[in-house]
Amino acid sequence: MISEDLTRRYWIAKIFYWFCFAVAWTGVVILGILLFHVTREGIQWLDFQFLSDFPSRFPAKAGIQSALFGTLWLMSFTALFSVPIGIGSGIYLEEFTHKNRYSRFIDLNISNLAGVPSIVYGMLGLVIFVRWFGLNQSVLAGSMTMSLLILPIIIISTREALRAVPNTIRQAAFALGATRWQTIYAHVLPAALPGILTGIILALSRAVGETAPLIMIGALTYVAFVPEGPMDDFTALPIQIFNWASRPQKEFHELAAAGILVLLFVLLLMNSIAVYIRHWSEKRNR
Amino acid sequence: MNVMTLKNFLPEKTSMDSNAMGKRLPANKRALENTIVLQAKNLTISYSETSAVNNISMSIPERQITAIIGPSGCGKSTLLRSFNRMNDFIPGANLNGQVLYRGIDLYGCNVDPVEVRRKIGMVFQKPNPFPKSIFQNVAWGPLINGYRKEINERVEKSLQGAALWDEVKDRLGDSAMTLSGGQQQRLCIARALAMEPEIILMDEPCSALDPVSTTRIEDLMFELKQQYTIVIVTHNMQQASRVSKFTAFFDAGNLIEFGETKNIFTHPKNTRTEDYVTGRFG
Amino acid sequence: MKNSSQIEASFAFDKDVFQRKHVKHWREEGIKAGLFLCTSVSVLTTFAIVWILVREAGVFFQDVSLFDFLFGTQWTPLFQPRSFGVLPLVCGTLLIVIGTALIALPVGLATAIYLSEYASSRVRSFLKPILEVLAGIPTVVYGYFALTFVTPLLRAVFPQVQIFNAVSASIVVGIMVLPMVASLCDDTLRAVPGSLRQGAYAVGATPFEVTLGVVIPSSLSGIMAAFVLAFSRAIGETMAVTLAAGATPKITMDPFVSIQTMTAYIVQVSLGDTPAGGTAYQTIFAVSALLFIITLGMNIASNHLLSKFREVYE
After folding, report:
1. Please, what CATH class does the domain formed by A50-285 belong to?
2. What is the rounded distance in angstroms from the CA atom of residue B202 to the CA atom of residue B73?
């Protein structure tokens, strides 16, 4: 009787294993399907003309140049604002405070901000940057809104990178008569830099794909020019994709797919840089 | 005058008859006062309610090796760290009493701990070189404190002082992480020497090393003591009896006995001391 | 830079040898102050969000009573006859959340179990990055996928599915949220000490029994935290539902029809030309406020559950 029961239990264990196995690899399958579908739909439209044209009512003439450049402008300014503030906050919170009430309050604050839906950030940007600051639908307003969105990500990953630096390094530096900042600047930051850079790229990748906040601040969906200054109106890749996908015509859906391919390529590029940084830093530490 | 000759950087110590302020002492105090460079007076250190060091008073004589021995967790490292204000980094650490460096209270209100650590250096239990080149490891301390001139000579002198120069002179640009454990520890010693401290605190410097490296570092200590005061915490009694002139025996945060090493180990006055050095506990 | 006599002088013993060096000190304090200022940005952000929501929603609630808003069943703020009951939007969001949960939670947990209990490290090093890629794909891409692949597929099987429907959106949001659930559960399961598992194996349990009987119960609060976080993300999801779920708010449990979520409504108004300042326009702030409160509550709950888990194992 015991062996009967054992056989049954073994079978259950096996089935369970195969179930988990199948489910886990489903994710890979789904990714494959998604990429295949997008490529199949969009590849026909992907050519140099697509990259250099502006959007148009006629699918054959529509292109993505304004969106591509808009995204580049947006990302540059977003990095400009969010990176120094994010790293600075991370350094202060990790290196300069003990566990007191204020630091715990900030911790709670940041983890809550990380979970706020992006559309609420859009609303924040609308009221403060577009109206109050009078920036209208400019690159500046968009990038400041995006910066607030990704700031918690940068802070959290900076803190993790700093935490990973062994404390013995700091102790050694202090024992030589160094101040906190001298220690951080000369030893802790360089050691944490790969982790920090990876976190920044992750955060910027997130910003590249975000649409809702930009819609809320009024980034236009039909922009036929490239921004030339931070106060210019702009559009961005995800907005252009959204715009095309919202239209009923099949050609525009295919254009959306082509736009997605460009967007995915940009993301692939960014993540490759992150992987490269990680490898380079590991080699450096040999 | 060659500025970089290490001897020139030692404090004015022309005669045994002047105290820390350069004033001449009355005769009965001369010989005694001058040999004390570091002093703990009624020192109590506690970490959030639990006391690690209980009301101890002891004096560290100059240019000798003083060992602090005792079982694990008896407060030796805490005491050592209080000498160069490294306990400041531990939240909840509380200090009562005084730590005097040539009569100056290290915990006085106008004292900058950063400056204290320039004069009182430290070598840690596990070698912790910076993940930079050998040269940068030794040069960083002096550089951030403003000594830019003739930094190469300073680095060379420090590495020679740590008996490491011959092994690394051709590869100063190599990463410090390529050195062996014993070499790394000597690098850490060179790093401390580069600041030209007066006192070097060593917290179980050989416990993470193999016996050969340990011997080399003990030999190094004998050379160093001619110019520096060394205070070493060790749980290795044989090491204490080999290298030190004076020994302090600690147990559970209390200073049980202090005296010349040969006396502590051959005829200790306290039975607890005797139990420890004969291996009955600890 | 010091010359030789200055160096000698500083080492010749003087009472002020340990004096604070002023320039160095003030530079250090200045840097510290600058860094502190950086942290104030995130504090200000939170206050700004709360203040704006309160203020703008307050304008709305001058015209519409809170009761009508929270419990009304008709949502027609943009055309006559105007009605401001938010329940249809909440219902739409709920439908999406339920659908997402049905997909992401079991699949995510099973994936995590596979990764932590069964998979070799080679498999892990392949599978985990794939999951990260899935997580990194922008939501607008998922919306597109729902609209152009999932919906036609569903309609081929179930002809009664409308062009805009809740189920396609739920499916893709589920796929989107799945990596997060898998990753969090994986971390949680791996934090359970090996000794616990070994004890169970030692009495002759199969891997299935060990997982179900020992590992999962020990990591329950961590798993629940992951689930709550998944809900929170599904609630806040915008682009996929805007593209695929529709713009017709209604109270229904039928996943095959077009609905509208809170987030999709906000996008609709932003894209349209409702005049700013009017009650109709201020609805976006009222809905945002509701959205914010719900997700904030879920995030706090999730953090609380996670800290309960960490208490035990760290």
Report:
1. mainly alpha
2. 17
Written as six digits, the tokens of C115 are 């990764």
Q: Name the pairing type of β-strands B246-251 and B254-260.
A: antiparallel
pTM of the model: 0.86
Q: How far apart are CA B18 and CA B30, in angstroms?
A: 7
Q: Which of B157-171, C83-97, C298-312 has the lowest mean pLDDT?
A: C298-312
Mean pLDDT (whole number) for B94-111? 88
The CA distance from C98 to C92, in Å, is: 10
- Alpha helices of chain C — where are they, by DSSP H? 4-11, 22-63, 66-71, 87-113, 121-136, 139-145, 151-157, 166-191, 194-202, 207-210, 216-218, 220-236, 239-244, 262-271, 279-313
Q: Which residues pair with B61 in a beta bridge?
A: B36
Check residue A103 and give its pLDDT. Answer: 82
- C-alpha torsion angle, residues A61, C140, A144, A276 (rounded to 10): -90
- Cross-chain residue pair A123–C266, CB shorter than 8 Å: yes
Inter-residue contact B154 to B4 (CB < 8 Å): yes
What is the Cα–Cα distance from A274 to C173, expressed in whole angstroms? 26
Which residue in this structure is represented by tokens 């919906």? C151
Q: How far is A228 from chain C (nearest CA, A)?
A: 24
CATH number at residue C264: 1.10.3720.10
Residue in C2, C13, C26, C27 to test binding to B, most B beta-carbons within 10 Å:
C13
Q: Are residues C232 and C137 in the same domain?
A: yes
Over residues B24-32, the mean pLDDT reads: 42
Query: Predicted confidence band at C2 (pLDDT cuts at 50, 70, 90)?
Result: very low
> In this predicted structure, what is the pLDDT of residue C16?
65
What ipTM, to 2 d.p.? 0.88
Residues C165/C256, Cβ–Cβ less than 8 Å: yes
Neighboring chains of C (3 or more beta-carbon pairs < 8 A): A, B
Q: Say if C303 falls within a structural domain.
A: yes
Report the distance separating Cα A177 and Cα C176, nearest Å: 50
Q: How many CB atoms lie within 10 A of CB A283?
A: 8
